[in-house]
Amino acid sequence: MLQLNEIRKTFNAGTVNAKVALDGVTLTLNDGDFVTVIGGNGAGKSTMLNIVAGTYPVDSGTIRLDEEDITALPEYKRARLIGRVFQDPMTGTAADMWIEENLAIAARRGKRHGLGWAITQKERVAYREMLKSLDLGLEDRLSTKVGLLSGGQRQALTLLMATMNHPKLLLLDEHTAALDPKTAANVLALSDKFIEEGKLTALMVTHNMKDAIAHGNRLIMMNAGRIILDVSGEEKKALTVDALLETFAKASGTEFANDRALLA
């Protein structure tokens, strides 16, 4: 479903502040893969997601999504193919618009627009049913402004908006990092549910090693812009945080230095 081939990206190239973010990253995701991505600060995790989403252009290499070359495709055109949930619950929704208006925008992403009612009664019924799946009582608050929701409610809504059109690829960029542990667990459970029910292909960046091990069918670890570990299946299920730290040390030659990951 997704193929990254020798992707390279350097920020501030040709200056004293040059920073190699991705150094020849090659990665293939099969249809239905749910891959978690772990790594220290500056490892290249979020840059890789931004490259896939089209936020940053690549310096070299190619990106293919469902056999379509999207390397030069602008970000707004990739939006019809890719769903995304950001780290900040304030991103990904329009705060001053109602819940139903946000859902209507998401439902029409990548489609042709014409004249007609912004939201039909049939759509309202469908939106209520979708919101019921969140189990947050939002189905009775369609005309509530999204900016009045809690961080967890807003992130759950963003997750629903990102998956409702069954994108070819779902990107989760530390989407629980700004939430308290209980709320984060609820959002992760919803992520698992939507990915499984929709048979989606997903790429989830996280700083939490336990979450990286517990979720998905495959785990990759990055360091200095490279993928240094790629495990799946029974090998992934058998992982522990200690084993992951030991593997990282052997593969990279250094200790894993990230307090957020170690304390999570």
Which structural class do you get from the secondary structure elements? alpha/beta
CATH class of the largest domain: Alpha Beta
Mean pLDDT, to the nearest integer, reads: 86
Tell me the number of helical segments per DSSP (H or I, 4 or more residues long): 10
Number of strands: 10
Q: Outline the biggest β-sheet.
A: 6 strands, mixed
Gross CATH architecture of the largest domain: 3-Layer(aba) Sandwich
- Poorly predicted residue ranges: 259-264
| Oligomeric description of these chains | single chain
Widest β-sheet, arrangement of strands:
6-7-8-3-9-10
N-C termini distance: 31 Å
Q: Which fold name fills CATH's third level, the topology of the largest domain?
A: Rossmann fold
Question: What's the CATH H-level homologous superfamily of the largest domain?
Answer: P-loop containing nucleotide triphosphate hydrolases
Envelope shape? globular
In N-to-C order, the SSE pattern is: EEEHEEHEHHHEHEHEEHHH
Main attributes of the structure:
alpha/beta, Rossmann fold, 2 domains, single chain, 4-stranded antiparallel sheet, disordered C terminus, 6-stranded mixed sheet, 264 residues
Structural summary, described in words:
The protein is α/β, with parallel strands linked by helices and 264 residues long. It folds into two domains: 2-81 and 167-263, P-loop containing nucleotide triphosphate hydrolases (Rossmann fold, 3-Layer(aba) Sandwich), CATH 3.40.50.300; 94-164, no CATH class. The protein contains ten helices and ten strands. The protein has a six-stranded mixed beta sheet, with helices on both faces. Strand 1 (2-11) and strand 2 form a beta hairpin. Helix 3 (99-107) packs parallel to helix 5 and helix 5 runs parallel beside helix 6. It is globular and about 60 Å long. The two termini are 31 Å apart.
